[in-house]
Amino acid sequence: MKHVLMLVICTTLVGACAVSPSAPSYSEAPNPDMSSGKAILYVYREHAEPTAWSATLSMDDKELVALAEKGFSWIYINPGKHRFKISWPLLAGMPKNEFESEFEKDKVYVFEMKGRVDIVGMQGMTVLAAGKTSLMPVEPDAAKSIMTKCCRFVSPTSQTQ
Length: 161
Description:
The protein is α+β, with helices and mostly antiparallel strands. Helices cover 16% and strands 43% of the residues.
C-alpha cells in the first residue's frame, strides 16, 4: 500500500510543474530585436528531470529565468564571456551546474536545459538517486522546430544582461 501511495504522489508531482497552457506558444511569443547590438540567447526545456520543479538559469550571479517543463525563453546578452549556473530547489536533489560561454553581438544562441535522475540503489525503504544537469548548445533551426512543437513562453526575470 505504501508503494501505491508513493507512486500516486510521484505521478501527481511529475505533471504539476509544466508551463501554463495559457502561456504563448513559440509562434505567439514576443520576438527579440535581431539588430539590438547584443547576442540573443534562447533557452528551452523540452524534458529535464526532475519534472516536478522549475530549474533556474543564472548568468554572472543574476537570475535570468526559471524554466518549468515544456518552457522556453529568450534574453538579450551583452557580447563577451559570461558565467552560467543552473540550479534547482533543494527538494529536487539535483546538483548545480556551472560553466562559461562566449557571445558575439547580433548572433543567436540556443541552449537546451537537460536533467536526468538515475536510481542507483535502495537502502532499506530509501531510494538512492543521482542527478545530472546540463545546458547543451543546439543549432538554432533545429531548436526552432523543437520549441514550436513543445514549448510555451516564460518571461525572463531580467530582459537585458
